[in-house]
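Work Package 3 (structural annotation) set out to generate three-dimensional models for the target panel prioritized at the project kickoff. During this period the team completed the workflow that converts sequence records into discrete structure tokens, so that structures can be stored uniformly alongside our sequence database. As a representative example, we reproduce one entry of 582 residues exactly as it appears in the project archive.
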Amino acid sequence: MHNPVALLTERLRAAVAGALGPEFAGADPVVRRSAQPRFGDFQANAAMALAKQVGRPPREVAAAIVEHLDAGELCSAVEVAGPGFINLTLSADALARAAAGLLADDRLGVAPAERRRVVVDYSAPNVAKEMHVGHLRSTILGDALVRVLHFAGHDVVRQNHLGDWGTPFGMLIEHLVDIGEQEAVRELSVGDLTGFYKQARDKFDADPDFAGRARQRVVLLQGGDEASLRLWRLLFEASKVYFNTVYDRLGVLLTDDDIAPESFYNPRLAEVAAELEAKGLAVVDDGALCVFPPGFTNRDGQPLPLIIRYSTGGYGYATTDLAALRYRSLELQAGRILYVVGAPQATHLAMIFEVGRMAGWLGPDRPAEHVPFGSILGQDRKMYKTRSGDSVRLIDLLDEAVERAAAKVAEANPDLDAPTRERVASLVGIGAVKYADLASDRIKDYVFDWDRMLAFEGNTGPYLQYAHARIRSIFRRAEASGAGGRPPGEVVVSEPAERALVLQLLGLDEVVAAVAESLQPHRLCTYLFEVASAFTTFYEQCPVLRAPDAAVRGSRLALCELTARTLALGLGLLGIDAPDRM
């Protein structure tokens, strides 16, 4: 199946070469959707860019391109407008064929991209600490990007860089020893990681003897002491069970196989330091081994160091991050490395990436990219917290989302049986939280608003889920009335609302490619909202089950099916389920 827009682009490229000469055969026609229907369906801006190169007026160049354009069966109208735009209106037959092609394609017209391995670092909670609202954005954004990149055709490697190493584990292990292994495992197994950590921290701050034992435990742990490692593993395994509970509730793809914790890189830290020294990149400064990547300075204008090894001989987070970057580039053979990490880490990651380039671990064919995101704010536009000022536990937030969604679902459809209502409430509540996060430009902060995110109207997850469920209800009613079934591919586009809907449905390929490249999931959210809005207009203006005859009814049912599949696929790429009933 060929998208008519892609075919038009190919033919415009040939027309440019025919009008201006073979040396322009590779020129980009720059075909974009028209802002207003009166300008046709699409505009080509090739003449505007090429006029200067050939020394001719843009309208004259546009007219020459149109003269050589074989629009054939694709367009019902082609005209030069304004200073040199080419307005293109697709024919009804071309749109009908394109819709039929989408229906016959499991991928709904999304062509696979040129395959490359993409490593995505996201979520990354800390062992022995509960996940809170601050972990939400990295987990949800990373999951959506993983899904989009995989669907686009890439080999995606998920990396969950758990914080499981370092000084805090001395006090955590000593606290575990104090209360006993059985009691510690019991506390951790019920998900009270915050309480466990707080008890250890309070003892560390208040009891010098405990603090001394904790520091000594760190030395033993990092030295490979087996007894300390065994206790550390207890903390790790109990935390992993808790993380999986949250991931299952969120419906994200992360599994135990994706865990690549800080401890994994511990044996590689000395290698990293030695390599940087051997390449002349690391120097000793005030007893510490440092790299000074160019372009980074502190507030006083002095070069900013990335500390590789402290004067005490220990290694810090920067070395671990460099080891991870080196591993992902050289051992995992990544063609693209993404770090879905909050915006405050921008300088740190930029320094890590620069050192990676200096060391030869990164290059034009092996880039690393920071995928930053803003914060979640409360109604007061400050960091979203509980009334007591604590961080909101992620599991509590998800529970509240489902509880609030259950009330909305019961109000919208009181006839749902209890098991269905419970299942739908979970899908709607979790979906609402995800969509509210993904629908905003990720780099910006956004205000967490329960009423807005759970609304059944506007650009929300529930609205899109309801649009899908409403379409599925049309088919249930069609089957009950004996009007079900449609000859596949028999699509007719005659009404303006049908035309507008098909034009929207043709855009999935473009938006998936754009999200895979730009790493901006909100563009897919906007597209799905536009599809749902176009369907609402279509449904209001073009009777489906009460269509004038069987052929028109079959065609409109086909458009309903195509819309439902597009919404379900698009929501699925965002990690959101599309229920058949709501």
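Confidence is low (pLDDT under 50) at residues 485-489.
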